[in-house]
Amino acid sequence: MISKLIQRIQEKNAPIVVGLDPMLSYLPAFLLEKAIDDYGETLEAAGEAIWQYNKAIVGAVHDLIPAVKPQIAMYEQFGVPGLIAFEKTVNYCKEKDLIVIGDVKRGDIGSTSAAYANGHIGSVTVGNTELRGFHEDIVTVNPYLGSDGVKPFVDVCREQGRGIFVLVKTSNPSSGEFQDREIDGRPLYELVAEKVDEWGKDAMDGAYSEVGAVVGATYPEMGAVLRKKMPHAYILVPGYGAQGGTADQLRPYFNEDGLGAIVNSSRGIICAYKDQKYSDFGEDRFAEASRQAVIDMKEDINRIF
Amino acid sequence: MISKLIQRIQEKNAPIVVGLDPMLSYLPAFLLEKAIDDYGETLEAAGEAIWQYNKAIVGAVHDLIPAVKPQIAMYEQFGVPGLIAFEKTVNYCKEKDLIVIGDVKRGDIGSTSAAYANGHIGSVTVGNTELRGFHEDIVTVNPYLGSDGVKPFVDVCREQGRGIFVLVKTSNPSSGEFQDREIDGRPLYELVAEKVDEWGKDAMDGAYSEVGAVVGATYPEMGAVLRKKMPHAYILVPGYGAQGGTADQLRPYFNEDGLGAIVNSSRGIICAYKDQKYSDFGEDRFAEASRQAVIDMKEDINRIF
Questions:
Q1: Do A111 and B46 touch (CB under 8 A)?
Q2: In chain A, what percentage of residues exceed pLDDT 90?
Q3: Residue A211 pairs with which residues in a beta bridge?
Q4: B116 contacts B109 by C-beta, under 8 angstroms
Q5: Contact B132 A74 (CB under 8 A)
Q6: A31, A149, B14, B146: most buried by Cβ count inside 10 Å?
Q7: Over chain A, what is the mean pLDDT?
Q8: Which of B26, B71, B121, B142 is best to mutate for the A interface (most A CBs within 10 A)?
Q9: ipTM
């Protein structure tokens, strides 16, 4: 999957991913009003509204980008109707030939991690029929439980040609509470990075591994170190834009050849219509505002090369 | 919620929780066959089979126990139909007046963690209507992202009278890869335990906090240390039975008064009918085998006091 992701990044000349994290407060009012007219003030209305929002945005930007990253929490909060919207979004993105990175941050042990892996990037068997629960291509994984938690995902990656991004150094202010603490003279996130490198050796796909890493844009000096520690890992970089990361901070995450990293923007794209800069589009043309924000983000990122 | 849990533990004289982790391979063959007859070899059949399995077991054991712990991965692997089975299971357990601990191990940052918290133990608002996505009373939480990831859950606990168990030291063999590494002379899991104690101070519910901890039964010497480090945290103890933990190892997790911990068994209860010890029940009476296994587990645990 990682070689396919790289191919798409090169075709689109866009090492970027659009985060589909639809909070209800992000939506133009008319979308939720319409859904409430149809379904009442229900979870179904919330699911329908975020699905319509996603569909419009993906429809407007899919030709510009290689991948999307739906954040499952934003759907899961609405229970089953929310997860139906997640499923529709994933499947629609795949119809549009986008690579789908499920931001699920799952992690458990043994057969439980295997269940998450099978459900999101692998398959399950019912009777003699192989089926897919959800349909992402890549998922994010939490490493706190160690190899027992991550290896079942790596097995699925290897067997089914899928990918994972393991949380190494996250973009949030308190990420240092545990991740930065020194162990034998180096921070915990470096230990995790070494494990990512080790796990990834069993699942190479060309020059890179199916096992990538998440490293926040907000810590560029750490990005430089981690880029070297994990030579085969693609790095998913959250935190650009709304979280405060700038393009200038992103160079260390990439290799010399411009590969090795993919930068996420969520709010900056899907909420562009609320930004002063794109206010001319207005609420009705929110998806066009998102398209312009993607064009601007591509330009901003590509000027660092 | 933690005071309610304690009350139920005392009423039932059972500091135990039954883990509802239904792998298809655990089910008596007739249950899946019946579901496939009705729904074909589909995700819906898998969801229906595990729901019928759970319903029979919960129906047979609910009067003996204070709580259940469904492992969401086992449902999520079957996509939306699996999560419908999860929802039915949670709601049925609540009808039976059981406390439901969703073993979801979620953890993200800021508004994303808030979305998970709202979806599983809190509520969401659609228009002017407050709704619940899923309906657990307590969930498990992964701490790798630090306070930004955990505090949104603590806020919901405090506001809505719900609870969390934060992963501190997990029961799996490789849990030491990161959790046991020494930082300033003490292992990472102790640092996490100190944070659990700190987070919990904002959400007291009687003598204990709504913020509890997960500490595996397989590491009793660590259990003793952690019991002292987190005086207000209830400890959820996985790893008893099938994972190798014995009752003798459990004493350190409890306080002198017999409170302070709740021990989980999953396979040992829900798969009892496959155990030589309970083979007289046969496949047809799998739920009665589970009931006998709960009775035996209660006796085994209670002899340590």
A1: no
A2: 92
A3: A164
A4: no
A5: no
A6: A149
A7: 96
A8: B142
A9: 0.97
